[in-house]
Write a structure and sequence with these properties.
- Chain A: Residues 110-139, 140-169 form the 4Fe-4S ferredoxin-type domain.
- Chain A: Residues 1-32 are annotated as: Hydrophobic.
- The complex is a heterodimer of chains A (202) and B (563).
- Chain A has 202 residues and is mainly α.
- Among the domains of chain A are: 41-94, Electron transport complex subunit B, putative Fe-S cluster (3-methyladenine DNA Glycosylase II, Chain A, domain 3), CATH 1.10.15.40; 108-171, Alpha-Beta Plaits.
- Chain A is 34% helix and 7% strand.
- Chain A has helices spanning 2-34, 41-49, 63-71, 83-94, 124-128; strands at 110-114, 134-135, 143-144, 164-168.
- In chain A, helix 2 packs across helix 3.
- Chain A is elongated.
- Chain B has 16 helices and 17 strands.
- Chain B is elongated, with a radius of gyration of 31 Å.
- Chain B starts with a helix and ends with a helix.
- Classes of the chains: A mainly alpha (202), B alpha/beta (563).
């Protein structure tokens, strides 16, 4: 009597636990399928920090492949257009040590410019442009849409007549940045110049 | 006294009491400045995109001839302010020179005016009125220069109940609005009725500081026969910056404009008296904005006062007319002493937003003392009318901590300068904020650009994939046609069926992506028609390319199984 009671309570405990296990397992499985995250969210985050010039200077065909490679453990210092700030942001995101830039940093933003009188209309640069920023047709003159150009240099090499220049990007007035003289603020009073910079006599 | 409590409850926080120095420029009556021989008209005298020139060099223009048309939604037209010949057009400005007059006529040449048809705003259709505002080049004359026609159209997306006439003019020195009201109170109120009609507002409230008794008297006389809406004149205590849009709305109506929002979000539209006068002139008289009232003041002038000035007049000419003492001039300030900017060049032209020019001597507005470190006294917090934490913003701005700046609502700063005014260490706080704001804006522009480049790259990838898939499909079809007579039936049906199923799933997913992109585009276009949609269009095109590729792959696979 006692034995069978114990047996029943033992079995019921096992049954309840097994039932719970199966139930929650099914629930987890369902939720896992239903709310499956497509793609790797970390790759998305890395990709968002890259400058999206699609220049391929990192050795990968575009920013997203490089983001995937970083996620697989590649170095974070292969992006010259991004420069030090991108390396710092990536190091921050991934918890890695920031490394010095592998390659030469760009001094200023540049855009491709086609010297139109020399263009022979070969369409080679159009095929090379990763963001479709060059318009033109076979045996017609080509030109670069300045607003869309990311300054990646990829059109320079295929050009058979070398008629593409990289020129500094023109900055619209709306993006003007005030010039600040941060140096004066942190000096000891006796080290400062007598007169603060101010609009002197007109 | 319940009223006192209510007033306290409605008041905006902070504020300072700088010396007013307004009487100097109100002693002389309003007069017309002499007609300039040459005007320089910048294409960007308003917020938004610069206007696009629509005249050619050498063309003869009259006062009021359209020179440049608005470019896109937030922009404004530009008109000739004197009659003469267009002598220069470049990307930044248009120059007009008066015609040479044959001797005997004196220096004053003719001033021919071109006007549009007069409109009666009481009977005219709202569409006709809006169209008139579009082509009249009227912008907010208080200082920000926001195109008025855009503000008039705000009703399309917000329900409005109150039109506020912002006559507080809280900044020291400036008296342009005060004088406008003294002389043209009835016209200003008529302009307010016009704008209230366009906005379907139910009441008009004039907010004015108690240091302008003459203007208040003129307004009260004009308000007696205000039709059709009643006009309430609310005289408020003089305290800087009660003329800030958000601060005035809080004070008059007790409504708080949400962070990052517009007055329209709380059902209010705010206009400056000068703007309302210009609106009335544009509609009633058909005269586009070609002149404005400017306060010329400061101790370096012999005849300070308010002058009606043609836009584009070089400041040197104007100041000389007001008796500029060249040797005493130390700083020329455009705007007021609190928010204005010091100009480096006396040949700058007067623009639509030039409400005041202060020709100050060295004693009057001395150079700021050397900056000392912040001692965390908290005086700036007490006076901030936007309830921000100026010293925290100062630290973060200097450190370039952009994330924290946004979290501490840097963009709610109205740059009133109250914090810099009280700072015992003489830190130019507002300069820091302006610099940080510009940096954050640029960062935002760059982020959007990178995102756009990414979407174009994705589109290109999708297009190449689609072309490849279509080529593959054609090849399969050719192969199938060649094979059919020789061989019937399938050998690996199972794997092909599985392939088709996975391809069909991919095709359904691509269809869903297209629908989603279409929906996002439609929703954004509906919510904000002014926004640039090209990026969303690229994303939609990418989704369509993906769908085409999936279609091509699927048909290729079907060809294979049927063969």
């Amino acid at each position: 009597m006692l034995a069978s009671n114990t047996l029943i309570s033992l079995l019921s405990a096992v049954a309840v636990l097994a039932g719970l296990g199966v139930g929650f397992g099914a629930l987890l499985g369902f939720v896992g399928e239903r709310f499956k995250v497509k793609g790797n969210p970390l790759v998305e985050k890395i990709d968002a920090l890259l400058p999206q010039t699609q220049c391929g200077q990192c050795g990968y065909p575009g920013c997203r492949p490089y983001a995937e490679a970083i996620n697989e453990g590649d170095a974070i210092n292969k992006c010259p257009p991004g420069g030090e700030s991108t390396i710092a942001a990536l190091a921050d995101l991934l918890g890695r040590e920031p490394e010095p830039l592998d390659g030469e940093a760009q001094a200023e933003e540049r855009v491709a410019f086609i010297r139109e009188e020399e263009c022979i209309g070969c369409t080679k640069c159009i095929q090379a442009c990763p963001v479709d920023a060059i318009i033109g047709a076979a045996k017609q003159m080509h030109t670069v849409i300045e607003d869309e150009c990311t300054g990646c240099d990829l059109c320079l090499a295929p050009c058979p007549v070398d008629c593409i220049d990289m020129l500094p990007r023109s900055t619209p007035l709306t993006q003007w940045q005030p010039v600040v003289n941060a140096a004066t603020a942190n000096l000891i009073a006796s080290d400062r110049a007598e007169e603060p910079p101010h609009v002197a006599r007109l | 006294m319940s009223r006192g409590f209510e007033l306290h409850d409605r008041d905006f926080p902070g504020g300072v009491y700088p010396p007013e120095r307004k009487t100097r420029s109100t002693e002389r009556p309003l007069s017309d400045a002499p007609l300039p021989d040459r005007v320089i008209l910048p294409l960007s005298q308003h917020s938004g995109r610069p206007a696009v020139p629509c005249v050619a060099v050498g063309e003869q223009v009259n006062t009021g001839t359209l020179l440049a048309q608005p470019d896109s939604m937030i922009s404004s037209a530009l008109h000739a302010s004197i009659s003469g010949k267009v002598v220069e057009i470049n990307t930044a400005y248009i120059v007009i020179e008066k015609n040479k007059v044959s001797e005997g006529d004196g220096s004053d040449g003719e001033d021919n005016e071109t006007r549009l048809k007069r409109l009666d705003w009481r009977t005219a259709e709202p569409e006709a009125l809006l169209e008139r505002l579009d082509i009249s080049g009227v912008v907010g004359l208080g200082g920000a220069g926001f195109p008025t026609q855009v503000k008039a159209r705000v009703r399309e997306r917000h329900s409005l109940d109150t039109l506020v006439v912002n006559a507080a003019e809280c900044e020291p020195y400036i008296t342009a609005d005060d004088v406008t009201l003294r002389y043209f109170a009835a016209d200003v109120l008529e302009g307010a009725q016009l704008m209230a009609k366009l906005a379907s507002a139910e009441q008009i409230i004039v907010g004015i500081e108690d240091n302008k008794p003459e203007a208040v008297a003129a307004l009260e006389a004009a308000a007696l026969n205000a039709l059709p809406l009643p006009v309430v004149i609310n005289v408020i205590e003089t305290r800087y910056p009660s003329g800030g849009e958000r601060q005035l709305i809080k004070k008059l109506l007790g409504r708080e404009v949400p962070s990052g929002g517009l007055p329209a979000d709380v059902g209010v539209l705010c206009h400056n008296p000068g703007t309302l006068l210009a609106v009335l002139h544009a509609v009633r008289d058909g005269a586009p904005l070609t002149s404005r009232i400017v306060t010329l003041t400061g101790n370096a002038l012999m005849r300070p006062g308010n002058y009606r000035v043609r836009l584009g007049t070089p400041m040197r000419k104007l100041l000389q007319h007001a008796g500029l003492k060249d040797t005493e001039l130390n700083t020329l300030i455009h705007g007021g002493p609190m928010m204005g900017v010091a100009l480096a060049d006396l040949d700058t032209p007067v623009g639509k937003t030039t409400n005041c020019l202060i020709a100050a001597t060295a004693d009057e507005l001395p150079a700021p003392p050397t900056e000392a470190p912040c001692i965390r006294c908290g005086a700036c917090e007490d006076v901030c009318p936007a309830s921000l934490l100026p010293q925290q913003l100062h630290w973060y701005a200097r450190a370039g901590d952009d994330a924290r700046l946004e979290r501490y609502h840097l963009f709610d700063c109205i740059e009133c300068g109250a914090c810099s005014y009280v700072c015992p260490s003489h830190i130019p706080l507002v300069d820091d904020y302006r610099e940080a704001k510009a940096r954050l804006r640029l960062k935002h522009i760059e982020a959007t650009k990178a995102e756009h480049a990414k979407h174009r790259f994705e589109f290109r990838q999708a297009r190449l994939a689609r072309e490849e898939a279509e080529k593959q499909a054609r090849r399969e079809a050719r192969l199938a046609r060649a094979k059919r007579p020789a061989q019937a039936g399938t050998n690996d049906g199972d794997t092909a069926q599985a392939d088709i199923r996975s391809l069909r799933i991919a095709q359904t997913a691509a269809k869903a992506a297209v629908r989603k992109a279409e929906k996002t585009l439609a929703r954004t276009a509906e919510q904000d028609p002014q926004q640039d949609l090209s990026d969303l269009e690229t994303q939609l095109a990418t989704a369509q390319e993906n769908l085409k590729a999936a279609d091509a792959k699927l048909s290729a696979a079907r060809q294979q199984t049927t063969s």
